[in-house]
Amino acid sequence: MTRRALTAIGAAMIPTSPRNSRDDPFRHFADVVLASDISSTSLSRLQACGRRIRVTRKKMANVDGSDRRTIIFVSEGAVKLVGHVGAEREQIVAFAFRGDILLLSAPSHKPYTGYALHSLNKCSLLAFPATDLIMSTIESPDASDAILERFFAALDRARETAILLGRKTAREKLASFLVSMAERIGHIDGDTIYLDLPMSRREIGDSLGLTIETISRQLTALRNLKIIKTTDRSKIVILDMASLRDFAALDPCVS
Amino acid sequence: MTRRALTAIGAAMIPTSPRNSRDDPFRHFADVVLASDISSTSLSRLQACGRRIRVTRKKMANVDGSDRRTIIFVSEGAVKLVGHVGAEREQIVAFAFRGDILLLSAPSHKPYTGYALHSLNKCSLLAFPATDLIMSTIESPDASDAILERFFAALDRARETAILLGRKTAREKLASFLVSMAERIGHIDGDTIYLDLPMSRREIGDSLGLTIETISRQLTALRNLKIIKTTDRSKIVILDMASLRDFAALDPCVS
DNA sequence: CGAGTATTTGATCCTGATCAAGAACAGTGG
DNA sequence: CCACTGTTCTTGATCAGGATCAAATACTCG
After folding, report:
1. Are A227 and A247 in contact (CB under 8 A)?
2. How far is CA B205 from CA B14, B117, B168, in A?
3. Does the structure show a pLDDT above 60 at B231?
4. Cβ burial, residue B43 (10 Å; 0-12/13-18/19+)
């Protein structure tokens, strides 16, 4: 079943009333990130300190006029956070999908920019000043802990990326990427996993420190090994997850 | 009055209780990280939740028996946080010097290990369960903000590392490394900067995703260009910081 | 001073980048 | 629906930066 079809059914079944987390991004945020049923007062406090933002493929998310640390919540779509070396080379520092959060320092400090991924035209985000958000969750230990959890997860992912970029081969990098994407946005159906990647080959390359040619070659290699199948430009079926994990050279403790 | 007498008097005046931040790592932590004069009650609260740890070159910091997120403070020495690919390849994910902090997820989750740097035999650390530390600073907005600052700084550094590992050449990597070390542990004297690196070539390589041979070659190249001078194994004098920054290909916004 | 470890330097190799061309696809308008 | 156009992806040929292998030299510490 394609992603589009799924979305259509979902939209039909769920009413327009914004009480539902599907429709109200703030409620969605509370459900997914804070993982706690919040009162309507704290919901309105969230709404007071957060701002809705739309991002496109071309336009960066100029998150805020101010120069503060910001916590971004991806309520719809998927974004990439990009850093540069000179004007030519670029490195994708993080992907964030629906329900993920993205932590940004004061932009004057570290100038990373966010864009919508290649196959998506628009993404909806929620931007919270970090201090405000943390202050507004201070009464609920569960919510604070959930935020803390996200901070450490972001750091862990960045460190895992460092290992990947510093010490893995092209094959291992792509396999790691596919395993990670399978875990984050894959649809499991029995033994096989279906992936609909919202990013282009260039974006995959820019996140792995490789060129598009190498990405393409490694994909065909995995295809020839019967580990994956590709149909669309974006669709990948993982046929042999065990082998893929072996190729990924993941740390044994990381399941 | 002789020197000995002074010392004797000093020793007599100061009780064994280490009020001074040089001597009491907890006070040192409060001074450097929390950047606020804390009351003696909150100091004792810190002492209650923190544990002292010693790390050597050989032995990893088995931080805690428990499996919690931990905030490590380096009160003496310098440590590295290491990740692995298989048994052979290793990647240094972060260096932390005196006064720095190191954020660790629950070890079962992500199994990075900390070691003292090559030229150091022993390092003294303070380990705080993350939640406890945050709870104990909750009343002081300044202290909470200082912790938050450290979180974002750690993430920024990890992202800068990703750009370096993914998109920079060996020359650029080493130059970036030297600039970063100069800023963190360099001693400025007029136009020149003196560096005493506590890590071996291997450790430099393992943090930059390069081999020791490449590190050595790039160092001699920079030496031939009259940008640096090396004396010891560990001592480096930066003669031309401007050129070094150019070679580092740092983002223009990062001063 | 001597033993063991680190570092430097040289020669060669290999992975992934670069250059180049063709194929597949998406979007547009007729 | 199809031709047209620009973009993205794939594949091939060649190149180069850094890895690997090997040996000599410089430190460090007992």
Report:
1. yes
2. 45, 13, 14
3. yes
4. middle
Name beta bridge partners: B235.
Answer: B196
Distance A7 CA to C6 C1' (A): 61
Give the H or E element holding residue B53.
strand B51-56
* B105/A167 touch (CB, cutoff 8 Å), yes or no: no
Q: Which of A144, A145, A167 sits opposite B91 (nearest CB)?
A: A167
pLDDT grade for A61, boundaries at 50, 70 and 90: low
pTM of the full structure: 0.89
Q: Which helix (H) or strand (E) holds B125?
A: strand B122-129
Sequence letter at residue B87: A
Residue A255, pLDDT above cutoff 60: no
Say whether the CB atom of B127 is under 7 angstroms from strand C. Answer: no
Asked if residue A57 keeps its beta carbon closer than 7 A to nucleic acid strand C, the reply is: no
CA distance A27 to A32: 9
User: Are A117 and A198 within 8 A, CB to CB?
Assistant: yes
E strand segments, A11-144: 51-56, 70-76, 79-85, 89-96, 101-104, 113-116, 122-129
- Structural contact between residues B104 and B165, judged by C-beta atoms closer than 8 angstroms: no
Residues of B in contact with A161 (CB under 8 A): 158, 162
According to DSSP, the β-strands at B89-97 and B78-85 are antiparallel
Q: How far, in Å, CA of B221 to CA of A7, rounded?
A: 57
